[in-house]
Amino acid sequence: LVIYLKFVDRKNPKFEDLFSYFDFQLLWKYFVIKIAYSLLIGVGFLLFIFPGIYFFTKYYFVSYIYVDKKGSIKEAFEESAKLTKGIKMRLFYLSILQLLIMLGGVLTLVVGLFVALPLNSLSDFYIYRKLLKKTS
Q1: Is the pLDDT of residue 1 over 80?
Q2: Torsion, Cα of 56, 127, 113, 104 (10° steps)
Q3: Measured at the alpha carbon of residue 56, what is the angle toward residues 5 and 29, in degrees to the nearest 5?
Q4: What angle do CA 124, 115, 32 make, to 5 degrees?
Q5: pTM of the prediction?
């Protein structure tokens, strides 16, 4: 994730950056955030489809915020809720577009995923940075 942030910030990422941010505590909390986010979405989809979509879009940037700001898990969820306020439908449409891009990558004998995955990730990070500037 840090490499994508450097690309979006127009900094020159280096191969060493992949390992320079390695911290077991940070990694552990990152996995906790991903599990909590997935469970929240899963429960939302089990209740009905709409709560799952709501939670998916409300906490869309939770892992990005945690890695970027290195705060607490609770702060990451709260910050994501603030960032996505008023744009949840746009994020939902973006995720549908990203899903179609991924499908196109799969249909091109899976080779297209080498383009689709970074493209989708960079678009997420770009939007994340724009929202941070807008809310600051």
Answers
A1: no
A2: 80
A3: 55
A4: 45
A5: 0.80
